[in-house]
Design a protein that fits this description.
By secondary structure, the chain is an alpha/beta fold. It folds into three domains: 81 residues, Four Helix Bundle (Hemerythrin (Met), subunit A) (Up-down Bundle); 193 residues, P-loop containing nucleotide triphosphate hydrolases (Rossmann fold, 3-Layer(aba) Sandwich); 134 residues, 434 Repressor (Amino-terminal Domain). It is built from 21 helices and eight strands. Helix 7 links the parallel strand 2 and strand 3. The structure holds guanosine-5'-diphosphate and magnesium ion. Magnesium ion (MG) binds next to helix 6. Keywords: Cytoplasm, Endoplasmic reticulum, GTP-binding, Hydrolase, Nucleotide-binding, Ribonucleoprotein, RNA-binding, Signal recognition particle. Its main location: cytoplasm. GO terms for molecular function: 7S RNA binding; endoplasmic reticulum signal peptide binding; GTP binding; GTPase activity.
Length: 441
């Protein structure tokens, strides 16, 4: 997606005259890209019309940075769609709140209930889990297992088949036990769809939750809007959580879910594990959707591995085109230190696919180690240079011999370095580097 939007904007900034035709072509290109990212057709069309109203063709012709103006307009429009105008109900620590989770089977409800509980527990809350899914065999076991692992109290039954009864009993019990966050997991399937929505209505009516959270799988594509709307029509959905954002989906469905429920996204799920759960932040999400890279998330992660006082310098160097082999070596060291790189560098488009493609982590690690051995045979001058001409044939042969490798291995590493340097340059060129203290902005 990012690629095609960038391309569309590039084409436009290359055009000497921006007339209605050029603008339309550019917008059509962007429309296609957003649709591929599962943004709902109607939202895309409305956005397109809004942008046409906002973007003043006269201004564009007068030599402004056209690309920036359009990019900013798209960015703002997408952010607007994700902001329903009012925040979700926020439970208060120490005061009992009941939170009901709804969503189709397989969307990630049970997993997300535990993540949500665990997240708050770490912050000093007293959460509890109630399993009101009596339809699916094994639902209670799954919740029980999750809850036990996280040491969170739970309630459910193997015998009782009435979800309303369990929900009400569970909520009562945990209120007595002074839990301040009572989380109710529900069923996601029924023999008939209408029965599921009726059940949700009844459970909600009986226990009067303070907040209903709609859980949606990010990979459901264009079905997002209708699904979200169907739940909203039976219960008072007040917040959305998008799951499986670690997969291939770009998450355009999030826009549909917000539009259909008029509720904000509050968290996203980024993996199967309990702590793969993040607060949702509109701007980084839209940046990622547009392929600009998620800077704030990247900054947070980079804190953990690169000493704080080195970060601005590193980014500064990269943005000036000074990506040396030594920097590559140091980044490889960091990568090996922090494990699966996918999670860190996937936020920076261009890095992840190159360094550690999903599913090939083992091979990539071996490759990184191989590269590092070869770099160990390089001179300081070679490591600190950005000039590939230093690497002549005889040096390449020396490095291969010194590291017990073939010439073609060295060539492969140099090629990878060149490609990476090109990518990093094209993305960080002219980036404004935050100063110390503004890092997480
Ligand atoms: P439910 O039917 O809505 O309760 O969904 P479950 O919680 O049982 O989840 C269905 C599947 O999705 C399980 O295999 C989960 O491990 C998986 N899952 C849930 N959330 C995520 C996520 O954020 N990322 C990934 N990769 N898998 C997830
Ligand atoms: Mg479940």
């Amino acid at each position: 997606l990012g690629g095609s939007i960038t391309r569309a904007l590039q084409q436009m900034s290359n055009a000497t005259i921006i007339d209605e035709k050029v603008l339309n072509e550019c917008l059509n290109e962007i429309t296609r890209a957003l649709l591929q990212s599962d943004v709902q057709f109607k939202l895309v069309r409305d956005m397109q019309n809004n942008i046409k109203k906002i973007v003043n063709l006269d201004h564009l012709a007068a030599g402004h940075n056209k690309r920036n103006i359009i990019h900013k307009a798209i960015f703002n429009e997408l952010c607007k769609i994700l902001d329903p105008g009012k925040p979700a109900f926020a439970p208060k620590k120490g005061k009992p709140s009941v939170v009901m989770f709804v969503g189709l089977q397989g969307s990630g409800k049970t997993t997300t209930c535990t993540k949500y509980a665990f997240y708050h527990q770490k912050k000093g809350w007293k959460p509890a889990l109630v399993c009101a899914d009596t339809f699916r065999a094994g639902a209670f076991d799954q919740l029980k297992q999750n809850a036990t692992k996280a040491k969170i109290p739970f309630y459910g039954s193997y015998m009782e088949s009435d979800p309303v009864k369990i929900a009400v009993e569970g909520v009562e019990r945990f209120k007595k036990e002074n839990c301040d966050l009572i989380i109710v997991d529900t069923s996601g399937r029924h023999k008939q769809e209408a029965a599921l929505f009726e059940e949700m209505r009844q459970v909600s009516e009986a226990m009067k939750p303070d907040l209903v959270i709609f859980v949606m799988d990010s990979s459901i594509g264009q079905a997002a809007f209708d699904q979200a709307q169907a739940f909203k029509q039976s219960v008072a959905v007040g917040a959305v959580i998008i799951t499986k954002m670690d997969g291939h989906a770009k998450g355009g469905g999030a826009l549909s879910a917000v539009a259909a429920t008029k509720s904000p996204v509050i968290f996203i799920g980024t993996g199967e594990h309990m702590d793969e759960f993040e607060i949702f932040d509109v701007k980084p999400f839209v940046s990622r959707l547009l392929g600009m890279g998620d800077w704030s998330g990247f900054m947070d992660k980079i804190h953990e591995v690169v000493p704080m006082d080195q970060q601005p310098e590193l980014l500064q160097k990269l943005s000036e085109g000074n990506f040396t082999m030594r920097i590559m070596y140091e980044q490889y060291q960091n990568i090996l230190k922090m494990g699966p790189i996918g999670q860190v560098f996937s936020r920076l488009p261009g890095f992840s696919a190159e360094l550690m493609p999903k599913g090939c982590e083992k091979e990539s690690q071996a490759k990184i180690k191989r590269y590092m051995y070869m770099m160990d045979s390089m001179t300081n001058e070679e490591l600190d240079s950005t000039n590939p001409k230093l690497m002549n044939e005889s040096r390449i042969m020396r490095i291969a011999r010194g590291s017990g490798r073939q010439v073609r291995d060295v060539m492969e590493m140099l090629e990878e370095y060149k490609q990476l340097a090109k990518k990093i340059w094209s993305q960080l060129k002219g980036l404004k580097i935050p100063k110390k203290g503004e890092m997480s902005a």
